[in-house]
Amino acid sequence: MRVQTFMLISLMVIIGAFIGGLTNLIAIRMLFRPFNPIKIGSYQVPFTPGLIPKRRGELAEQLGNLVVGHLITVEGVKSKLFDNMLIQEIRTWFKKKVHELSTSSSTLEEWWKGQSGGEWSATKTKGRFTTSVAKTLVKTADEYRGEPLQNWLPESIIHKGETLIPETADLLLEKGKVYVRSHEGKAKIEEMVSRYFSTKGSFGGMVGRVVTNIPISGRIQYELLRLLDDHKSQEFIESQLRREFEELKEKNLDELFPNADWEGRANQIAEEIAKKVPVLGEWDKPMSEWAYRYEAQLVDSLMPAVLETLSSIIERNLQRMLMNLKLDEIVEDQVNSFPLPKLEQVILSIAKKELKMIALLGALIGASVGLVQGLIALMFF
To answer: What is the pTM of this model?
Structure first.
């Protein structure tokens, strides 16, 4: 009798444990399976598809709202982007890369080809640069070359030209006096006096030979110096320069350069600019020969300025950027397009231990129920 009782209770415990564990396993599986609804004729079998396939659209929408509203927020992104450790890491990385480039034996063209997969050429880049500069110069010349200089030259340049007139007059007089006092100037005066009398026939030639014994060239030199020192000479030269300057302002470039080849000149200027532009004219040289000149400037000046500017731009526009990214739609689309078998595999692999414990808990509860049922059966039967 006791053996039969023990066997009955044990059987009920085993059956209860089996039913409890199996029920929980089926419930776990029914979260995902079946993936599609099962129909018998026009009748859809209840609980098909599984919970997650059936509610995937709602789940995707709620996950998108959760990500945007609580996970990826403006404050959270700011705290990460403007973290001092992150900024320091960026500076350290940038400094390291700049130093590597400045000591590299490769040319900038070789390095950039490696970075761009060989789709970049310094020759093409220089050509595009010079073409762009030349077109800009030609376009500018076409716009202004028919206009008088005074209509488009900056006031500062015109004013500078006017202030230079007295200085130019002084310089011309000073240079003239230096030349007249020089041996070359004196010899030139004597040559001009001799040539003058030689053109006056035999009588003039005779007078010239007589004059050569008289220091007339010295007298002329003296009078020239007096003329150059006279303030009226200063006023005369200044007035002539001002008149020429006024006439110059009223002329245009076509009048000043009637046969100018503007396109050819623009190309020449663009080529010279390309040679003088930092880095652009040094692409075909090893970086170790020239890049070190820019290393300190890049690390100490450019990088902090770029970081500060980017930080300011991001801080002002971060909320709008996040809104334009539409992260909720991205999350929703990704969840809806994610394969259900793969999703099931991922979740089960992550929560494998916990799901096993849920099944064991179901078995334990079922065994407890079976035990209670067995005891009740013994009490009443």
So the answer is: 0.46
Average pLDDT over residues 212-216: 55
Cis? peptide before 34, omega within 30° of 0:
yes
Which residue would you say has higher pLDDT here, 59 or 277?
Answer: 59
With CA atoms as reference, report the closest residue to 168 among 239, 74, 113.
Answer: 239
CA–CA separation, 162 and 139 (whole Å)? 29
Q: What are 292-329's pLDDT values in tens digits?
A: 787 888 888 888 888 888 888 888 888 888 888 888 88
At 212 the three-state DSSP class reads coil
Q: For residues 358 and 8, is the Cβ–Cβ distance under 8 A? A: no
Structure confidence by residue, pLDDT tens digits, 310-320: 888 888 888 88
Which long-range contacts link 248-253 to residues 24+ away (Cβ below 8 Å)? 248/149, 249/148, 249/149, 249/150, 249/153, 249/158, 250/148, 250/149, 250/150, 251/148, 251/149, 252/145, 252/146, 252/147, 252/148, 252/149, 253/141, 253/144, 253/145, 253/146, 253/149
Number of CB atoms found within 10 A of residue 355's CB: 17
Q: Give the span between the Cα atoms of 267 and 257, in whole angstroms.
A: 17
d(CA 94, CA 299): 8
Q: How far apart are CA 111 and CA 98, in angstroms?
A: 13
43 has which bridge partners? 40
In sequence order, the 6+-apart residues with CB closer than 8 A to the CB of 168 are 241
